[in-house]
Specification:
Number of domains: 2
Radius of gyration: 18 Å
Structural class: mainly alpha
Mean pLDDT: 85
Helix content: 55-70%
Shape: globular
Low-confidence stretches: none
Organism: Pararge aegeria aegeria
Number of helices: 9
Protein name: Jg18926 protein
């Protein structure tokens, strides 16, 4: 979704709602106590999480967006496990039971994967031109978060010092965050 203010608030809300619709459609499998946790985790990773993250590689996310996605993911996983917050079971334990990586890690992986695609494109490609031309008028206060600044933080946090996106296999190995085994 494109907005005049270049925010992703509406898109994040739409993705959360879409993921809940997908989750409800699969609640017969996800909430079945006889179903193994491994199977529930695979169903979640193949059907619900993609609905939640669709288009996220292009978002200039803020901490509030990541928090919103994290909270909704944990609600879904806890509900599927039959665990409430009153049971005082840690999120890491629930994630480990389903073998699901944190949603923020998957968002970062998607952004870095998309960054690799963009950087392998020629300088004359429309996407590269659009990203290069995208500038905001300087206002008071902190500058608006952009996709480029978000990716720069991701690269710094992943310790990708010598960034070479031209070698596709190397880039994939460096940026991929696999789900726990």
């Amino acid at each position: 979704m494109l907005t005049t203010t270049a925010t992703v608030d509406e898109d994040v809300t739409h993705r959360v709602n879409t993921a809940w619709l997908r989750w409800r459609a699969l609640s017969g499998v996800l909430c079945d106590n006889r179903m193994p946790l491994k199977t529930k985790g695979k169903v979640y990773k193949t059907a619900v999480r993609p609905a939640l993250l669709y288009g996220a590689e292009c978002w200039a996310t803020k901490r509030t967006h990541e928090q919103k996605l994290h909270v909704n993911e944990m609600k879904m996983l806890r509900w599927a496990a039959g665990v409430t917050r009153l049971d005082k079971v840690r999120n890491e334990y629930i994630r480990g039971s389903y073998k699901v990586a944190p949603i923020t890690d998957k968002m970062t992986e998607g952004r870095l994967r998309w960054y690799g695609h963009v950087m392998r494109r020629g300088d004359d490609h429309a996407v590269r031109k659009a990203l290069a031309l995208h500038e905001h008028k300087r206002r008071r206060g902190r500058p608006a978060s952009t996709w480029w600044t978000t990716v720069a933080k991701d690269i710094k946090n992943a310790n990708l010092i010598d960034v070479t996106t031209q070698d596709r296999e190397s880039w994939r190995r460096k940026t991929r965050r696999a789900d726990p085994k």
